[in-house]
Amino acid sequence: MGPRKMFFLIFCFLVIGIGTAQNISKSTTAKYTTEELDLDGNLNEPIWETAETGADFIQFFPTDSLSAKYPTTFKVVYSETTLYLGVRAESEKGNYVVSSLRRDFAATTNDNISFLFDTFNDATTAFFFGVTPYGVQREGLVSEGGSAFNNTWDMKWQAEAQRFDDHFTIEIAIPFTSLKFIEGATSWRFRSYRWNIQSNEQTTWTQVPQNQLLSSLAYMGELRFERPLGRSRTPLALIPYVNTLANRDYVSDDSNVDFKIGGDAKVSIGDAMNLDITVNPDFSNVEVDDIFTNLTRFEIQLPEKRQFFIDNSDLFANYGNTLDNIPFFSRRIGLARNADGNLIENQIIGGVRLSGKLNPTTRLGFLNLQTDADPENEIASYNNMMLAFQKKVFSRSNLGLFWVNRQTFGDDDFINPDTRYNRVLGIDYDLASADNIWTGNFFVHKSYQPGDNQGNFSTQSRLNYDDRNWRFVADFVYVDEEYRADLGFVPRKDIFKTGNSATRRFYPKNSKLSNHSFSLLGVNFWRPNLDFKHTDYFYRATWEANFTNQSTFSTNVQHDYIFLTADFDPTRSPGAVPIPGDRGYRFNQFSAEFVSNPSNLVTYGLTTSVGGFFNGEKYSFGGEVGYRFQPWANVLFGLNYDGIRLPDPFADADIWLATARAEVTFSKSVFWNTLVQYSNQRDNFGINSRLQWRFAPLSDLFLVYNDNYFTETFAPRFRSINLKLTYWLNI
Q1: By three-state DSSP, how is residue 728 classified?
Q2: Strands (E), 565-632
Q3: For position 455, what pLDDT does the model report?
Q4: Do 674 and 687 touch, CB atoms closer than 8 A?
Q5: Which CDD domains does this one have (predicted)?
Q6: Is residue 201 a part of any domain in this protein?
Q7: Does 684 map to a domain?
Q8: What does the alpha-carbon distance between residue 640 and residue 636 come to, in Å, rounded to a whole number?
Q9: How far is the C-alpha of 655 from the C-alpha of 660, rounded, in Å?
Q10: Intra-chain end-to-end CA distance of the chain, in Å
Q11: In this structure, are residues 632 and 654 in contact, taking their beta carbons and an 8 Å threshold?
Q12: How does DSSP classify residue 324?
């Protein structure tokens, strides 16, 4: 038998043999009622007395083999229109940890109980809902088998809570119109888990190994319904907005006052498909990005926060891999480079997105958005489109096909003929075994552009093995020099990359350590168009520790080799002499990081690194200190410093990044957030302050103020203020 046939048989064995069926370890039955419950958090309606109880939670942290120290029970009731959940959670002295009254709280800094609903029983996607002892809500979408959370997804539902000295109770009402599911379904995969921050305990209804994520969809129970469910009747939702904006650019001395109207519509198609329509969208109320210090030669990816792109976002965004090649990156839409090469806003005229389930194992996604022309800045109007199919195979794996197209239809003289269109087609296979021990990603992508249809490939093969004690990763990536993804994120081209790692975990008994691990990682880059020259590599050894009080510590040593093909100035200082290219640089670095117990009123984190940097040295330190005025406010102060020392005639640099963040919640409907950021690398001191009043479910009034200054002269740079009203109307 030849080696190719042997490899093929081994691959088939891995793909098929580890794709066994899911095991359901626990089940509970939702009791049917014809009554509509009055939510007050007290659980005193008679129906709760007769409903089945879900109990016997198991620890996930600090250990994963003991019963919960503080028990949690829940019950599920449903009517024709609504799914109800009742919760009783025992606690220690009632000293609950709640950092905010704002919706979509952070689970790791708030006591809360959460519920996962895998309504299509596919073990890859789910809805999640969480509530704190103060009745604060969060909801979102889970994808990639539980490894990806998106809590910017919003739906209408209710929750009320009552607090007592030794326990709290919660009542939840989720309209079936807020969920997608199959008509006639009699059961869902389901799990509840709890973050008991004040007692340093995380528990789950069905056992989850500590090497897995607490949100893993591989370890679920079953929620059974006494009667089959009716049709998913999501109403038509109209979300109009009105926005008044005034701004001034002090650099160009331009002032502008603008009045905008527009909106979105959400249309339900069948049991499991959504059609989203947007006209003249406005994202002025979206939270600003955190400023970062970039000392590398490559672009850094920032998260998508715009609501239109959120629903079923994994269906569009999860192709390729986040480090080397994402064929579709939605943040590219709405931004463009002007004639001077600067990145500026490019107005989106409108668009549509169709996404959801065609059947329990097949998903469809279609997105099409048109951006406006801006001749003054030499920016063409582009149509941006993606079509994606995803098919569940075996237990939890998926096979995906996609087509991305970016194309201009104009004939302006400033349009570069080579950029008139860019198309990327690809096929991805995401492997996930029933117990999530085996995972992987395999893809082949190809791009097409004017006069260049040969080659242009990007491929990857990655296989992970992750059991309780060991984790191994083998990764191989190739990106052709001519591969283009204009709507994607591709930081490096002309590379063949290998990445291999091994991790050993330990779970000491009767120790202040919950677990700790040692890992070795090696990443190598070759350049195919430079006769496969070995241009970059780094080798890293890491020790990580998770303490039983929820604090963490990690330290690593790393050896780097970087061959610069061109001159490079890591300080980005005006007029500085760059480090010479066409030569290699070897250096070593040591780093350490500590994060304190999040249950304390005062929290902090510290990080430091020291070592070589190209032909010089780099010293870095950073820290954050936060204080929680429970539950009304929390403040955070952060400071990071990078000191670069290079030999003459190259420039030294002292790079500072300072952050101050304050979040005040006057009630569960009025919030005030302020973010102040200083970066001398970007020559910017920025203030973003946002006052939000949620006057009705998912309907808001925003007042947003932005102010930016140059750091050298503290002269004003850009200033704006806008008042925006949005209203969510179900029809």
Answers
A1: coil
A2: 583-595, 602-613, 616-629
A3: 86
A4: yes
A5: CBM9_like_2
A6: yes
A7: no
A8: 13
A9: 17
A10: 65
A11: no
A12: T
Q: What is the CATH number of the domain that holds 199?
A: 2.60.40.1190
Contact 490, 479 (CB under 8 A): yes
Position 440 scores a pLDDT of: 97
Tell me the C-alpha distance between 218 and 24, whole Å: 10
Contact 132, 199 (CB under 8 A): no
Whole-prediction pTM = 0.90
CA 712 to chain centre: 35
Residue 101 lies in a domain: yes
Residue 364 has a pLDDT of 96
452 CB contacts (<8 Å, ≥6 apart)?
418, 482
What is the helix (H) or strand (E) element at residue 343, kind and residue range?
A: strand 343-345
Q: Cα(54)–Cα(26) distance, rounded to whole angstroms?
A: 9
Q: Length of the chain, please?
A: 731
Q: Which residues of the chain have pLDDT under 70?
A: 1-24, 285-302
Backbone phi and psi for residue 617, each to the nearest 5 degrees, phi listed first = -135, 155
Q: Quote the CA–CA distance of 287 and 663 in Å, as a whole number.
A: 13
Q: 16 — phi, psi (to 5°)?
A: -90, -40
* Planar angle of CA 508, 513, 515, nearest 5 degrees: 65
**489 occurs within a structural domain:** no
Q: Return contacts of 649-655, CB within 8 angstroms, 24+ apart.
A: 649/577, 650/569, 650/576, 650/577, 650/578, 650/579, 650/615, 650/616, 651/569, 651/571, 651/573, 651/576, 651/577, 652/571, 653/570, 653/571, 653/573, 654/680, 655/293, 655/295, 655/571, 655/680, 655/681
Rounded CA-CA distance 719/688 in Å is 10
In the chain, the number of structural domains is 1
**622: which 2 tokens?**
């950073």
Summary count for the chain: helices (H), strands (E): 3, 41
Bridging pattern class, strands 670-679 and 653-665: antiparallel
- Domain span at 82: 24-225
DSSP string for residues in 199-230: GTEEEESS---TTS-TT-TTS-EEEEESS---
Half-sphere exposure of 671 (CA within 13 A, CB side): 22
User: Does residue 692 sit in helix, strand or coil?
Assistant: strand
Give the C-alpha separation, 285 to 263, whole Å: 14
Tokens linked to 679? 């970066």
pLDDT at residue 151, rounded to an integer: 82
- For residues 252 and 227, is the Cβ–Cβ distance under 8 A? no
- Give yes or no for a contact between 37 and 14, defined as CB atoms under 8 angstroms apart: no
Q: Which residue, chain included where needed, has tokens 């760059």? A: 578
